[in-house]
Specification:
heterodimer; A: 281 residues; alpha/beta; six-stranded mixed β-sheet; four-stranded antiparallel β-sheet; disordered N terminus; B: 345 residues; mainly alpha; ABC transporter involved in vitamin B12 uptake, BtuC; Iron complex transport system permease protein (chain B)
Chain lengths: 281, 345
């Protein structure tokens, strides 16, 4: 077996402002990612979740503030070295036409290889371990573009695993997956966190899945961190109202003991409210 | 599933693919050498192999020294060098922009180099390596211009291609204008700048091209792995530790350098840069980097195209006419397919 890094690195965003063009999407955001834990980031559309992930993985340079990895600004760390510690799975990545699963997963070894260094046994081991962990061994020789959405997402996660980073950032890893595949992916990330101590940071849309799988839940609003902490402290009726502008009820999930948010709309209530649209005719 | 059988099959598969890759590249290389030998042996007349070898060794052979040494050899050498350069430069752009239409001969870089070379030769009466230098500079300038014109919140592949096609058309009409003002006796020369040709090739022309292939090809080879990672998309590549912007700049400089140097010597041999990468991709079946296979395919295309144009067609045509006839249908096919996929839900 390959030895995996057991000492977790710390990742901290310090008063970060960042965005595209002239507009700042993140506005002085502070975030300390707890090492060795699973962090889920939630928030309304366009609140800067993806921007935060992209800034923390150096795809965007912050206009102000900095992102620190073990106390060192990530902009001072050489790209290859950073990619050996910090992995990122972008939102819906696209595989090159016709590439096989094994080939795509082995691309995760890129930061571990120098200009002239050959493919080593360690690389093979990392790829094999990643395929086994994601249950994609049987798919190894299949072209990625022939796979189903759930299989494809597992393959991309396998690529990120082959990178063997201590921290893994994932931008909406469950998008476009049906519920069973969503659970499968989140279980897989939990296994990874438990077995290797990998720090997982993911952006999730589904509040209930976020609350169930995260050790640390982060709610963002307007480019800032609104509230963070244990899921039961973060997923409250008041916070849902503040972050999403939505009335809700929180109950406890009998399976996981974690909070579940039930949205309250204007319709379909046991005591039906009056519709605001006048009836036809 | 257990780790060790997986590991074994991973290693087996990787070795099998590596062997297959070496085999395919080996076959391509042998084919190229065979074509090179054929063009030396057989032209209007047949020259016996022993005579060809003696000429190559520098001996004077009556009846063979001129046809082989002065006509066939320079032509074949130049064809191979130009083909290598076009193939490498083309596939580098196609990989980098993840689009087969993003070839330098479609997006105006060849036309830029061509226009500068025509201007330097016809108007400024320059010759030799200086023309190459001007062509390379102009190629880079056009690359920069196309990039800048298509920049709006980053560069989208299709916008860059459309801008490039427009720039290319303007440069082509500039070439036609300069040539129309050129003295009549340069008409033979003029043909080269419209379609690309290795007519009247001289071994002395090969030197700047050898230097370009070594320097720019070396630069490209040094970025080959990072370039390959760009296929996964800029974000994923960056997450894998690739300096995306730096890689892009180096690849552009290397590819434009090769394309422009080859254009300065042989003219814009139509569609070789555009065709080599996709043909190589078809042959290699996603097995490793396309740089070397595309270079070999490019060399074969020019060599075979020139041979066809000289001997196999009813009248003599420059190589660019032959490769153009091959490339145009493929271009139409790609555009039709791109439209279909863009329109389909």
């Amino acid at each position: 077996m390959t030895a995996y890094p057991m000492t977790a690195c710390s990742l901290v965003a310090n008063r970060v402002s960042a965005g595209y063009g002239d507009t700042d999407i993140l506005r002085g955001l502070d975030l300390a990612v707890p090492p060795g834990k699973i962090t889920a980031i939630v928030g309304a559309n366009a609140c800067g979740k993806s921007t935060l992930l992209r800034t923390m993985s150096r795809l965007i340079s912050p206009r102000q503030g900095q992102v620190l990895l073990d106390g060192k600004s990530i902009h001072r760390i050489p790209s290859r070295e950073l990619a050996r510690t910090l992995g990122l799975l972008p939102q819906s990545p696209v595989a090159p036409e016709g590439i096989t699963v094994a080939d795509l997963v082995s691309r995760g070894r890129h930061p571990h290889q120098g200009l002239f260094s050959r493919w080593t046994r360690k690389d093979d081991e990392a790829v094999a371990a990643a395929l086994v962990a994601t249950k994609t061994v049987a798919l190894a020789e299949r072209p990625v573009d022939e796979l189903s959405g759930g299989q494809r997402q597992r393959v991309w996660i396998a690529m990120a695993l082959a990178q063997q980073t201590e921290i893994l950032l994932l931008d909406e890893p469950t998008t476009f997956l049906d519920i069973s595949h969503q659970i499968e992916v989140l279980d897989l990330l939990t296994d990874l966190n438990r077995a290797r101590g990998t720090t997982v940071v993911m952006v999730l849309h589904d509040l209930n899945l976020a609350a169930r799988y995260a050790d640390h839940l982060v709610a963002m609003a307007g480019g800032r961190l609104h509230v963070s902490g244990k899921p039961e402290d973060v997923l409250t009726e008041q916070h849902v109202r503040e972050v999403f502008g939505l009335e809700s009820r929180i109950i406890v999930d009998p399976t996981s003991g974690r909070p579940i948010m039930l949205p309250i709309g204007r319709h379909r209530m046991v005591t039906e409210q009056v519709s605001t649209i006048p009836p036809a005719g | 599933m257990l780790l060790s059988p997986t590991l074994d099959s991973i290693i087996d598969n990787r070795r099998r693919r590596a062997r297959r890759r070496s085999l395919v590249i080996g076959v391509l290389a042998v084919l190229l050498v065979a074509m090179f030998a054929l063009t030396l042996l057989l032209g209007q007349s047949f020259t016996p192999p022993e005579d060809v070898i003696r000429v190559l060794l520098g001996e004077q052979v009556a009846g063979a020294s001129f046809t082989v040494g002065q006509l066939r050899l320079p032509r074949a050498v130049l064809s191979i060098l130009a083909g290598l350069s076009f193939g490498l430069g083309g596939v580098a752009f196609q990989i980098m922009l993840r689009n087969p239409l993003a070839s330098p001969d479609i997006i105006g870089i060849s036309s830029g180099a061509s226009a500068a070379a025509v201007f330097a030769i016809v108007v400024l009466s320059l010759k030799g390596p200086l023309v190459s230098v001007i062509a390379v500079a102009a190629g880079l300038g056009v690359a920069l211009l196309v990039y800048a014109l298509s920049f709006r919140n980053g560069v989208a592949g299709m916008r860059l291609i459309l801008v490039g096609i427009g720039v290319s058309a303007m440069l082509d009409s500039f070439i036609a204008y300069v040539l129309s003002r050129a003295p009549a006796w340069t008409l033979q020369e003029a043909m080269r700048w419209l379609t690309g040709s290795v007519n009247g090739a001289q071994l002395s022309d090969a030197l700047p091209l050898v230097l370009a292939v070594v320097a720019f090809g070396g630069l490209l080879a040094s970025r080959a792995r990072d370039l390959d990672a760009l296929k996964l998309g800029d974000d994923t590549a960056a997450a894998l530790g690739v300096g995306v912007v730096r890689t892009r700049v180096m690849v552009i400089v290397a590819a434009v350098g090769m394309i422009a140097s080859a254009t300065a010597v042989a003219g814009p041999i139509a569609f070789v840069a555009f065709l080599s990468g996709p043909i190589a991709a078809r042959i290699m079946e996603n097995n490793g980097s396309l740089l070397i296979p595309s270079a070999l395919i490019g060399a074969m295309l020019v060599l075979a195209g020139d041979y066809c144009g000289q001997f196999l067609l009813p009248s003599r045509y420059p190589v660019g006419v032959v490769t153009g006839a091959l490339g145009a249908p493929y271009l139409i096919f790609l555009i039709v397919r791109a439209n279909r996929t863009a329109n389909s839900p």
